[in-house]
Amino acid sequence: MDNTSLGKIYKDGEIIIRQGEFGECMYVIQSGMVQVITHRLEGKEVLIAELGEGDFFGEMALFEKEARSATVRAKGEVSLITIDKKTLLRRIQQDPSLAFRIVEKMSARIRKLDEKYSRVTANDRRNWDSRPRRWISPTPGLK
Amino acid sequence: MKSHKITGQDFLKESGRQSSSIQLKNGSRVGVVGGGPAGSFFSYFLLGLSDRVDLKLDIDIYEPKDFSKSGPQGCNKCGGIISETLVQHLAAEGINLPASIVQRGIDSYVMHTDVGSARIETPLHEKRIGAVYRGCGPRGTEIGRWDSFDGYLLKKAIEKGAHIIKSRVDSITFIDDFPQLVYNHPEASKQTYDLVVIAHGINTSSLPNLDKIISGYRAPGHSKTFIKEYHLGSEIIEQYLGSSMHVFLLKLPRLEFAAIIPKGDFVTVCILGENIDKDLVSHFMQSPEVKSCFPPNFALDGGSCQCWPSINTRGSQRPFCDRVVFIGDSSYSRLYKDGIGAAFITAKAAANTAILQGIATEDFKRSYWPVCKRIDSDNQFGKILFLITKLFQNLRFTRRAILKTIITEQRKPQGRKIMSTVLWDLFSGSSSYREIFLNTLRLSFMGRFAWNSAVSLINISKEGNKGE
Ligand SMILES: Cc1cc2nc3c(=O)[nH]c(=O)nc-3n(C[C@H](O)[C@H](O)[C@H](O)COP(=O)(O)OP(=O)(O)OC[C@H]3O[C@@H](n4cnc5c(N)ncnc54)[C@H](O)[C@@H]3O)c2cc1C
Fold first, then answer.
1. ipTM of the predicted structure?
2. Structural domains of chain A, count
3. Beta bridge partners of A28
């Protein structure tokens, strides 16, 4: 690792956090990119987002005791700073404004998801309406 | 239905801010004396927060130094360690330190004593401590290769909208209850502000008559320290010091803390304690433990740069009044550690108070003063810890016991490493002194240390060393 870099280097394809595992920290990207992916029940991978320098991830673990909701993987070489839950929460207790940026990013993500969701439901409705009549049934699959 | 848009300023009126008699308004002017870390952090956070509440402010930062210069002209005299906690806080705030500023990422500490050395690895095996230069490096630094830490923060404040006035402020007065700064500039030598923030640190002649202008104000207490820079070249540094900070537990009177910090092509020697003088410096530099960190026959009396700056050892009294607040070293700092981290905390607390509460004495007393007091009460634990360390430093068997405990702990792949954690936190400033102190009171820690001390004592008496 380069002497002047802070944080830890992850190699291309290396898993940083794994969906379903519990975590005690969040990560800030110093340089490089990561992919956020979820695994469907049938094992299929879905790419949710790609994040770059200055972005952070894993912040949900700081506020709830749920398992990680997605897997994050290095895309190329990436350098990350780990932020410990205790360090951050202690500081937020003394200076709640430290959470502004995290809340701001989380709210931007919710907004994006909302937009995606409304786009998906609008498409679904369009597909539904354009289907031939005989396909439409009040309880699909029960005919 | 008619909707009503609530603006940021409505929100402030609705919240506790109306209790203040003096508030910043749209177009208010703020003067910041000093563009070191405290002044830049303050301006950065004030402008960030004012933007969130739709308040347009005009900020001038007065700073005579040119941080793009090497040597004393651009330097704010310091060891240049950016603590693990501060690196994390800055990252969470979106301030990532670029590689051009971080001269070396530190991942371990090597503790040297006359009875041996031990290495303490960072708990996460991650480089979360940065070694930087406050200016562009010591005399003789290759210009353009590295950037200054203070210059980087100042640039961040300027990007947010602060203006820089490259001048020293000579005095402060009050004109019709508004603070006025008098500075050394041929065109406009006086500026009146709604709020003045004093962030000039303690390595400057203080503005005259502050105690007369600000009732109850008393300047912070300080102590003389020593810093010396040596050019070794990056390869030799890698070979002799690596990416570890080297700290010394030596039996030298008045020495509180001494470290050798590896940077890019230079190393910084830092000696803190009670009024450090030439005698103490020479004893320290001649000790075999220090010499072992340099190549054989390296001329330690040479060096590229040296200085005797002051360090804040006691907070100031009443560092605020209506429309004036002191931050950073000019108000409160952490004892011997993480002064830049303390500048971050006091600067942000003052900025939050000014925007969310107001700028009257009462506002600073209610919101800013508790933050200063918290640093102060933590420093009391720090004083006890340094006293204990000094005691241990003076006894050969305790020095041995500390070393033995660390070596045993560091060999363990897993499990609790309390002595290592205590020393890591003490050297790196990663935890509050209170927390470190409470950690030392753990029964398992006390038990193991007492056992190792007893063994060392027996061994020493067997060896017939009754010198101490
Ligand atoms: C030997 C030593 C080693 C240290 N090592 C570390 C360390 O490794 N890590 C750490 O975190 N802290 C360390 N510190 C502490 C750290 O240096 C300070 O706590 C920190 O610099 C405080 O920042 P500040 O902005 O309050 O003051 P300063 O850094 O002193 O900045 C004050 C600024 O104000 C300007 N100024 C002064 N007078 C005027 C005026 N009249 N008008 C306009 N501008 C003015 C100066 O030019 C300067 O730029 C060390 C201190 C010493 C003495």
1. 0.81
2. 1
3. A56, A81
